[in-house]
Amino acid sequence: MRIKRGPWIFIALLVSLSLPGFAVRAAEPNSQQIKMAACNQQAGGKKGDERKAFMSDCLKHKPAAEETQQDKMKRCNHEASGKTGDERKAFMSQCLKKAGG
């Protein structure tokens, strides 16, 4: 019984080409590592229990959620009260372009 080499060579080639992709992904820091580095930098010269408490608090905090388009529209609409016509259009345009207010 003879084994065909063609499929095995193809499989070996696919595996060898996919391995570098896994190595690159493993080297990239994940969100927890990024958060840890940022908190560590903010901790500065704190030591002992003060540092532990700071790091614990810092790592628990989640970044503020980005304002949705609907929330932005509500906020801008509220801020535009009293404006009319072209003035309102110009204000709304600028307000909606701003990032987060």
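^ that was protein a. below is b, sequence first then the tokens
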Amino acid sequence: MNTDILIRLGAFAGVLVLMASWEVLASRRRLATSKLRRWTANLTVVALNTMVVRLVFGTGAVGTAVFATGHGGGLLNRVSWPLWFEVILAVVVLDFILYLQHVMFHAVPA
């Protein structure tokens, strides 16, 4: 299994156990529905959301890449550098963009 998936799943499971424990130990109000029903509904929404996001964004990214390649789009399609250099450049630029996104999330209050 991919390490990224294991890390995300582990983080999700850890937070889930922490929140469930907190709810059991320090409940702030009486529940209108059973915990089993509420947790089942919430986890179902999480599972559906995960599947839809992975399908839509994965398909959308691949579709956009195929469209751009077919129409000569993309910055690296406009140059004729060695493939190894283009791959390294693409990885560095995409990683830098993710870093900028990370910095922006810390800079802009929620």
